[in-house]
Design goal:
Urease, subunit C, domain 1; 11 helices; 22 strands; globular; binds zinc ion; 9-stranded parallel β-sheet; TIM Barrel; alpha/beta
Length: 386
């Protein structure tokens, strides 16, 4: 099915087209240019009315929404998550598991694989396995009782599901470091997470191929000028891309700006780390086997520890733009191209370029989602879906 979008401000990979058109066919971007659209035989034509057409958002780290969670292994729940995220401009994401018993993680991965085969809403790119190979002293909201050292047989079983794209580990343990080559061999990105590593240990793990930093600043050794920690290593080493939660509760706006000024658009990527309570009212909810309390955008364990966010991706983008003090058209890659690059997906997603998938988001001037298009199909249109 072909789609023609006219009258759009297009943030293409290499330039901004102030007023132009884009044509998609068979799910891919086939042509775009400035000015009036040529006479084209499209199945559907949409007038963007001057709104901004950007690459669809890609969330690499998101646990749940609307009461559903990736770790529960519920295929229907994953579809509901996909539809919820599409309403917030997300065109592709990695359902993210939590620290849990091995069997439960394997079951969750298999459910993600089944859900991926029947796409609805935002596309499932694969799975993000966060934990259990973390550091108990930096557990945050991850279950300390299930945190353990990596076991190669177990890891092979996770990788054999064929759905894992990203795995987050604490590399200060030799057992955990051992899995890095096997992951890289299978094209799985490895991220440093929930870690008490020193600056030197973090740099050494980057030498081994860790290329990402999980929710930078949170659940890791902080930057002290005489003990720069994982945060210092993340800022100092150009090889790693840094995830950042932009709910303005996990990280202050000034720290988001400091990160962005050090890493730039190619080294910074927005994640939500959103949990099941996202999209629901205040109250008590599940997070794996935990109970959490949600009030406004704040989700905490009963002891007050922040337990993932309840922020949506579009709100995160608005917060980020405000925090860094730069217009969206200058920083858009942090929401699409950089996450795509982080998991080896940029050949077909993450920017508006010829023959890439037509995964697009139409945004108002104040960055509200007007429409989300996944693979050339309208997945959400403001006002049309409840
Ligand atoms: Zn985490």
């Amino acid at each position: 099915m072909s789609l023609l979008i006219t009258n759009a401000r297009i943030l293409s990979e290499h330039r901004i087209i102030e007023r132009g058109w884009l044509y998609a066919d068979e799910g891919r971007i086939r042509a775009f240019a400035g000015g009036e659209a040529p006479n084209m035989d499209a199945k559907r034509t949409l007038d963007a009315d001057g709104a901004t057409l950007a690459p669809g958002f890609i969330d690499l780290h998101v646990h749940g929404a609307m009461g559903d969670e990736a770790i529960l292994g519920d295929e229907a729940g994953l579809h509901r998550m996909s539809e919820f995220y599409a309403r917030h401009g997300v065109t592709a994401y990695l359902p993210t598991t939590l620290t849990a018993p091995h069997g439960q993680i394997v079951a969750a991965l298999n459910a993600i694989k089944r859900a991926q085969a029947h796409p609805r809403g935002a596309a499932i790119l694969g799975a993000h396995v966060e934990g259990p190979y973390l550091n108990r002293s930096k557990a945050g909201a991850q279950f300390p009782e299930f945190i353990r050292l990596a076991d190669m047989t177990e890891v092979e079983e996770l990788l054999d599901t064929g759905i894992v794209r990203l795995i987050a580990i604490a590399p200060e343990f030799a057992e955990n470091r051992q899995i890095i080559p096997a992951c890289l061999q299978r094209g799985v990105t490895v991220s440093i997470a929930h870690t008490a590593a020193s600056f030197e240990e973090a740099l050494a793990s980057f030498d081994l191929g860790i290329s990402q930093v999980t929710h930078t600043y949170n659940a890791m050794t902080p930057l002290h000028h005489r003990d720069p920690g994982v945060v210092g290593a993340a800022l100092a080493d150009a090889r790693v891309r840094c995830e950042i939660i932009c709910d303005l509760l996990h990280v202050e706006a000034g720290a988001i700006k400091a990160l962005f000024n050090a890493k730039g658009t190619s080294g910074t990527l927005i994640i939500t780390d959103a949990i099941a309570a996202t999209g629901l009212g205040d109250g008590e909810y599940g997070l794996g086997a935990h109970r959490v309390h949600k009030q406004g955008k704040k989700v905490t364990l009963m002891d007050g520890t922040l337990a993932g966010s309840a922020v949506t991706y579009d709100e995160s983008v608005r917060n980020f733009v405000k925090a860094v003090g730069r217009p969206f058209h200058e920083v858009w890659p942090v929401a699409s191209l950089t996450p795509a690059q982080a998991i080896g997906e940029a050949h077909q997603r993450g920017s508006i370029a010829l023959n890439k998938l037509a995964d697009l988001v139409l945004l108002s001037d104040d960055l509200r989602v007007q429409m989300t298009i996944v693979g050339g199909q309208v997945a959400y249109q403001r006002g049309e879906v409840a």
